[in-house]
Protein backbone atom coordinates (compact mmCIF):
# COMPACT_ATOMS: atom_id res chain seq x y z
CA UNK A 1 0.00 0.00 0.00
CA UNK A 2 1.19 3.51 -0.79
CA UNK A 3 0.16 6.24 1.61
CA UNK A 4 0.49 10.00 1.19
CA UNK A 5 0.74 12.26 4.23
CA UNK A 6 0.76 16.01 4.82
CA UNK A 7 3.44 17.24 7.23
CA UNK A 8 3.80 20.57 9.03
CA UNK A 9 6.99 21.53 10.83
CA UNK A 10 9.02 24.25 12.47
CA UNK A 11 12.42 23.81 10.84
CA UNK A 12 14.36 25.74 13.50
CA UNK A 13 15.74 22.71 15.40
CA UNK A 14 16.71 20.73 12.31
CA UNK A 15 19.49 20.56 9.73
CA UNK A 16 16.77 20.48 7.08
CA UNK A 17 14.40 17.86 5.74
CA UNK A 18 16.98 15.33 4.54
CA UNK A 19 18.33 12.68 6.86
CA UNK A 20 21.92 13.31 8.05
CA UNK A 21 24.19 10.95 9.97
CA UNK A 22 24.99 13.18 12.93
CA UNK A 23 22.44 16.03 12.74
CA UNK A 24 18.74 16.06 13.64
CA UNK A 25 16.54 16.14 10.54
CA UNK A 26 12.81 16.30 9.89
CA UNK A 27 12.95 13.17 7.74
CA UNK A 28 14.62 11.08 10.44
CA UNK A 29 12.07 12.20 13.04
CA UNK A 30 9.14 11.40 10.74
CA UNK A 31 10.53 7.99 9.77
CA UNK A 32 11.11 7.02 13.42
CA UNK A 33 7.58 8.02 14.38
CA UNK A 34 5.89 6.23 11.48
CA UNK A 35 8.05 3.15 11.98
CA UNK A 36 6.59 2.86 15.48
CA UNK A 37 3.07 3.05 14.05
CA UNK A 38 3.86 0.36 11.46
CA UNK A 39 6.00 -1.76 13.79
CA UNK A 40 8.49 -2.01 10.93
CA UNK A 41 11.08 0.24 9.29
CA UNK A 42 9.47 3.02 7.25
CA UNK A 43 11.22 5.22 4.68
CA UNK A 44 9.54 8.28 3.19
CA UNK A 45 9.95 10.46 0.10
CA UNK A 46 9.04 14.17 0.19
CA UNK A 47 7.77 16.69 -2.34
CA UNK A 48 10.63 19.10 -1.72
CA UNK A 49 13.71 18.97 0.51
CA UNK A 50 13.88 22.07 2.68
CA UNK A 51 17.14 23.51 4.01
CA UNK A 52 18.35 24.06 7.56
CA UNK A 53 15.92 26.28 9.47
CA UNK A 54 13.24 26.32 6.74
CA UNK A 55 9.65 25.59 7.77
CA UNK A 56 6.68 23.89 6.11
CA UNK A 57 2.92 24.12 6.52
CA UNK A 58 2.19 21.74 3.65
CA UNK A 59 5.01 19.30 2.98
CA UNK A 60 3.77 16.14 1.24
CA UNK A 61 5.40 12.73 1.61
CA UNK A 62 4.65 9.15 0.64
CA UNK A 63 5.57 5.77 2.05
CA UNK A 64 5.11 2.15 0.99
CA UNK A 65 4.13 -0.52 3.48
CA UNK A 66 2.56 -3.98 3.61
CA UNK A 67 0.96 -3.44 7.04
CA UNK A 68 -2.68 -2.47 7.44
CA UNK A 69 -3.46 0.60 9.54
CA UNK A 70 -6.37 3.00 9.52
CA UNK A 71 -5.48 6.43 8.11
CA UNK A 72 -6.36 7.84 11.52
CA UNK A 73 -3.58 5.72 13.06
CA UNK A 74 -0.94 7.22 10.76
CA UNK A 75 -2.01 10.72 11.79
CA UNK A 76 -2.59 10.36 15.52
CA UNK A 77 -0.10 7.56 16.09
CA UNK A 78 2.53 9.47 14.14
CA UNK A 79 1.91 12.65 16.14
CA UNK A 80 2.09 10.76 19.43
CA UNK A 81 5.67 9.80 18.56
CA UNK A 82 6.79 13.09 17.01
CA UNK A 83 8.37 16.11 18.71
CA UNK A 84 6.11 19.16 19.10
CA UNK A 85 7.89 20.87 16.21
CA UNK A 86 6.51 18.33 13.67
CA UNK A 87 2.90 17.33 13.03
CA UNK A 88 1.17 14.94 10.62
CA UNK A 89 -1.86 16.81 9.23
CA UNK A 90 -3.55 14.08 7.15
CA UNK A 91 -3.04 10.64 5.61
CA UNK A 92 -4.56 9.12 2.49
CA UNK A 93 -4.18 5.81 0.66
CA UNK A 94 -3.10 6.50 -2.94
CA UNK A 95 -2.31 4.49 -6.04
CA UNK A 96 1.21 3.34 -6.84
CA UNK A 97 1.16 5.93 -9.61
CA UNK A 98 1.46 8.69 -7.01
CA UNK A 99 4.92 10.03 -6.19
CA UNK A 100 5.34 12.87 -3.70
CA UNK A 101 8.11 14.49 -5.72
CA UNK A 102 7.60 13.52 -9.35
CA UNK A 103 3.80 13.81 -9.42
CA UNK A 104 3.89 17.40 -8.12
CA UNK A 105 2.87 19.99 -10.71
CA UNK A 106 3.43 23.18 -8.74
CA UNK A 107 4.96 24.23 -5.45
CA UNK A 108 4.29 27.32 -3.34
CA UNK A 109 6.57 29.10 -0.89
CA UNK A 110 6.07 32.09 1.38
CA UNK A 111 8.87 34.34 2.62
CA UNK A 112 8.10 36.50 5.65
CA UNK A 113 10.09 39.67 6.38
CA UNK A 114 9.70 41.51 9.67
CA UNK A 115 10.61 45.11 8.89
CA UNK A 116 11.18 47.24 11.98
CA UNK A 117 14.19 48.76 13.77
CA UNK A 118 14.00 46.48 16.83
CA UNK A 119 14.82 42.79 16.47
CA UNK A 120 12.07 40.29 17.33
CA UNK A 121 12.34 37.78 20.16
CA UNK A 122 9.40 35.38 19.94
CA UNK A 123 9.48 35.43 16.12
CA UNK A 124 13.27 35.37 15.87
CA UNK A 125 13.54 31.99 14.13
CA UNK A 126 10.30 32.31 12.18
CA UNK A 127 10.83 35.51 10.22
CA UNK A 128 13.59 37.31 8.37
CA UNK A 129 14.32 40.50 10.30
CA UNK A 130 15.31 43.62 8.34
CA UNK A 131 15.91 46.73 10.48
CA UNK A 132 16.33 49.13 7.54
CA UNK A 133 13.11 50.48 5.98
CA UNK A 134 11.88 48.55 2.94
CA UNK A 135 9.77 50.01 0.14
CA UNK A 136 7.28 47.30 -0.81
CA UNK A 137 6.26 49.22 -3.94
CA UNK A 138 9.81 49.03 -5.32
CA UNK A 139 10.00 45.35 -4.43
CA UNK A 140 6.69 44.69 -6.18
CA UNK A 141 7.92 46.39 -9.36
CA UNK A 142 11.13 44.36 -9.31
CA UNK A 143 9.27 41.09 -8.75
CA UNK A 144 7.43 41.35 -12.05
CA UNK A 145 10.72 40.96 -13.96
CA UNK A 146 11.04 37.42 -12.62
CA UNK A 147 7.59 36.05 -13.45
CA UNK A 148 7.53 33.61 -16.38
CA UNK A 149 9.87 30.94 -17.73
CA UNK A 150 13.52 31.91 -17.26
CA UNK A 151 17.01 30.58 -16.75
CA UNK A 152 17.39 31.22 -13.00
CA UNK A 153 21.13 30.45 -12.82
CA UNK A 154 21.75 33.78 -11.05
CA UNK A 155 19.19 32.90 -8.42
CA UNK A 156 20.30 29.40 -7.49
CA UNK A 157 23.01 28.19 -5.14
CA UNK A 158 26.40 27.55 -6.73
CA UNK A 159 26.19 23.98 -5.38
CA UNK A 160 22.70 23.41 -6.85
CA UNK A 161 22.57 19.97 -8.50
CA UNK A 162 19.50 20.48 -10.71
CA UNK A 163 20.17 19.44 -14.30
CA UNK A 164 18.48 22.52 -15.74
CA UNK A 165 18.29 26.05 -14.29
CA UNK A 166 15.11 26.80 -16.27
CA UNK A 167 12.00 27.19 -14.14
CA UNK A 168 8.56 28.72 -14.66
CA UNK A 169 7.61 31.20 -11.94
CA UNK A 170 3.84 31.59 -12.17
CA UNK A 171 3.44 34.10 -9.36
CA UNK A 172 5.56 36.40 -7.21
CA UNK A 173 3.38 38.63 -5.05
CA UNK A 174 4.67 41.22 -2.57
CA UNK A 175 2.18 42.18 0.14
CA UNK A 176 2.64 44.44 3.16
CA UNK A 177 0.76 44.10 6.45
CA UNK A 178 2.02 46.80 8.79
CA UNK A 179 5.54 45.64 9.76
CA UNK A 180 5.34 42.41 7.75
CA UNK A 181 6.31 42.17 4.09
CA UNK A 182 5.32 38.83 2.60
CA UNK A 183 6.53 37.27 -0.65
CA UNK A 184 4.33 34.53 -2.14
CA UNK A 185 5.90 32.46 -4.92
CA UNK A 186 4.46 29.68 -7.05
CA UNK A 187 6.44 27.72 -9.65
CA UNK A 188 6.58 24.36 -11.35
CA UNK A 189 9.69 23.70 -9.22
CA UNK A 190 12.35 25.66 -7.37
CA UNK A 191 16.14 25.52 -7.50
CA UNK A 192 18.35 25.29 -4.42
CA UNK A 193 18.20 28.63 -2.53
CA UNK A 194 16.11 30.14 -5.37
CA UNK A 195 13.49 31.71 -3.09
CA UNK A 196 16.03 33.02 -0.60
CA UNK A 197 18.16 34.50 -3.38
CA UNK A 198 15.12 36.20 -4.92
CA UNK A 199 14.22 37.55 -1.48
CA UNK A 200 17.77 38.87 -1.03
CA UNK A 201 17.63 40.77 -4.34
CA UNK A 202 14.18 42.21 -3.60
CA UNK A 203 15.24 43.34 -0.13
CA UNK A 204 18.29 45.06 -1.61
CA UNK A 205 15.98 46.90 -4.01
CA UNK A 206 13.49 47.65 -1.23
CA UNK A 207 16.25 49.36 0.77
CA UNK A 208 16.90 51.68 -2.19
CA UNK A 209 20.40 50.32 -2.85
CA UNK A 210 19.43 49.17 -6.36
CA UNK A 211 16.73 50.06 -8.86
CA UNK A 212 13.87 47.63 -9.61
CA UNK A 213 15.37 46.80 -13.03
CA UNK A 214 18.31 45.21 -11.22
CA UNK A 215 16.21 42.07 -10.64
CA UNK A 216 16.02 41.62 -14.43
CA UNK A 217 19.71 42.44 -14.90
CA UNK A 218 20.70 39.78 -12.35
CA UNK A 219 18.49 37.27 -14.18
CA UNK A 220 20.10 38.07 -17.53
CA UNK A 221 23.64 37.57 -16.19
CA UNK A 222 22.91 33.85 -15.62
CA UNK A 223 25.75 33.94 -13.11
CA UNK A 224 25.26 33.42 -9.37
CA UNK A 225 28.29 35.56 -8.55
CA UNK A 226 26.43 38.57 -10.03
CA UNK A 227 23.44 38.04 -7.74
CA UNK A 228 22.56 39.41 -4.31
CA UNK A 229 22.92 38.07 -0.80
CA UNK A 230 21.04 34.91 0.16
CA UNK A 231 18.29 35.89 2.60
CA UNK A 232 18.05 34.06 5.97
CA UNK A 233 16.31 30.69 6.16
CA UNK A 234 14.01 31.53 9.10
CA UNK A 235 11.54 33.49 7.00
CA UNK A 236 10.91 30.71 4.46
CA UNK A 237 7.89 28.36 4.45
CA UNK A 238 6.80 25.62 2.04
CA UNK A 239 3.07 26.39 1.92
CA UNK A 240 1.66 24.18 -0.80
CA UNK A 241 2.23 21.40 -3.33
CA UNK A 242 -0.23 20.91 -6.18
CA UNK A 243 -0.98 17.49 -7.70
CA UNK A 244 -3.36 16.25 -10.42
CA UNK A 245 -6.93 16.24 -9.13
CA UNK A 246 -7.45 12.50 -9.66
CA UNK A 247 -5.18 11.71 -6.71
CA UNK A 248 -7.74 13.39 -4.42
CA UNK A 249 -5.23 14.85 -1.96
CA UNK A 250 -6.58 17.28 0.66
CA UNK A 251 -6.16 20.98 -0.06
CA UNK A 252 -4.48 23.35 2.39
CA UNK A 253 -7.01 24.71 4.86
CA UNK A 254 -6.97 28.47 5.62
CA UNK A 255 -6.09 27.77 9.26
CA UNK A 256 -2.85 26.14 8.13
CA UNK A 257 -1.58 29.15 6.19
CA UNK A 258 1.12 30.96 8.12
CA UNK A 259 0.39 34.62 8.76
Summarize the helices and strands and which ones pair or pack.
Elements: E1 2-9, H1 26-38, E2 44-46, E3 55-64, H2 71-80, E4 86-94, E5 106-115, E6 128-130, H3 136-143, E7 148-151, E8 166-177, E9 180-187, H4 194-206, H5 214-221, E10 236-242
Parallel strand pairs: 3-10, 5-6
Antiparallel strand pairs: 1-3, 1-4, 2-3, 5-9, 5-10, 7-8, 8-9
Overview of the molecule:
The chain has 259 residues and is of the alpha+beta class. It is built from five helices and ten strands. A hairpin with an 8-residue loop joins strand 2 (44-46) and strand 3 (55-64). It has two domains: 2-103, Pseudouridine synthase I, catalytic domain, N-terminal subdomain (Alpha-Beta Plaits, 2-Layer Sandwich); 106-238, Pseudouridine synthase I, catalytic domain, C-terminal subdomain (Alpha-Beta Plaits).
What is the total number of structural domains?
Answer: 2
Mean pLDDT: 95
Could you name the CATH homologous superfamily of the largest domain?
A: Pseudouridine synthase I, catalytic domain, C-terminal subdomain
Residues in helices, as a percent range: 10-25%
Named at the architecture level, the CATH assignment of the largest domain is 2-Layer Sandwich
Tell me the span between the first and last alpha carbons: 36 Å
Q: What is the C-alpha radius of gyration, as a whole number of Å? A: 19 Å
* Backbone shape: globular
Q: In CATH's first tier, which class of the largest domain applies? A: Alpha Beta
**Order of helical and strand elements:** EHEEHEEEHEEEHHE
- CATH fold-level topology of the largest domain: Alpha-Beta Plaits
- The proportion of residues in beta strands is 25-35%
- Please state the structural category: alpha+beta
Total number of helices: 5
How many strands appear in the DSSP assignment? 10
Low-pLDDT residue spans: none
Largest sheet: 10 strands, mixed
Amino acid sequence: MRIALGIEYDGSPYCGWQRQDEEPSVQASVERALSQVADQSIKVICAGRTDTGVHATAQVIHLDTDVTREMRAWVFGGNANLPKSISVQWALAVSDEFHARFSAQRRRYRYVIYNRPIRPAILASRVSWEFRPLDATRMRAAAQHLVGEHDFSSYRAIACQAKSPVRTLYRLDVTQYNELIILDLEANAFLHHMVRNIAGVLMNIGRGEREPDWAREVLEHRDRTKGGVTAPAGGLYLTGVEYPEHFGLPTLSPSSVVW
